[in-house]
């Protein structure tokens, strides 16, 4: 049996996911065919199924936390943020992390399609639910720590405030998906300002987010 090169396998898998993401974002899950994905990825259906057992598994994989190019997963980055000595700066870093995909023209429409499919797909709903729970825990933890450190309004309930922080982040995706003139990159500074004023945090220029 031929030995599989893990790096090549991962690269090929990512190439397929990229090709499929373009189609799912443009046409939706239901209207995208396996044949179209194969054509976009430049491979046969047999070869495609070597990487993904079916179209739905491929769609799910787009929302799994497999790690960034540096090998660090989102869960690991959220955990690292929660351990930071400066919870306000760490929160800004988390906002940067969670809004980064919105800058990709394909991502907002893909996220909207995932929301639609989650109502029909319990497995996808559970996957997205776990992801949302991780994000909420991280943001709520940082808000509680920031309040204790005197960095934000201590009267805010961290769990309620975290829900609003995540709702504002989600609005960056929904607006980008539904409004053709909305530019997430241009609106990100506004989002940060809204969060700073809502949380009664220090001025943003005093604590710029890390790259």
User: Which structural class is indicated by helix and strand composition?
Assistant: mainly alpha
Binned strand content:
under 5%
Could you spell the SSE succession in H and E letters? HHHHHHHHHH
**Secondary structure tally, helices:** 10
Q: What is the total number of structural domains?
A: 2
- Overall shape: elongated
Q: What's the CATH topology label of the largest domain?
A: Tetracycline Repressor, domain 2
Q: Number of DSSP strands?
A: 0
Oligomer: single chain
What is the alpha-carbon Rg in Å?
Answer: 19 Å
Largest sheet: none
Helix content: 55-70%
Report the CATH architecture of the largest domain.
Answer: Orthogonal Bundle
- Which CATH class of the largest domain? Mainly Alpha
How far apart are the first and last residues' alpha carbons, in Å? 44 Å
CATH evolutionary superfamily of the largest domain: Tetracycline Repressor, domain 2
Which spans of ≥5 residues are poorly predicted at pLDDT below 50?
A: none
Determine the mean pLDDT: 92
Please describe what this structure looks like:
This protein has 211 residues and is mainly α. The protein has 2 domains: 56 residues, Homeodomain-like (Arc Repressor Mutant, subunit A, Orthogonal Bundle), CATH 1.10.10.60; 133 residues, Tetracycline Repressor, domain 2 (Orthogonal Bundle), CATH 1.10.357. It is built from 10 helices and no strands. Helix 1 crosses helix 7 and helix 7 crosses helix 9. The model has no long low-confidence stretch (mean pLDDT 92). This is TetR family transcriptional regulator. GO terms for molecular function: DNA-binding transcription factor activity; transcription cis-regulatory region binding. It comes from Streptomyces noursei. Pfam families: TetR_C_6, TetR_N. Keywords: DNA-binding, Repressor, Transcription, Transcription regulation.
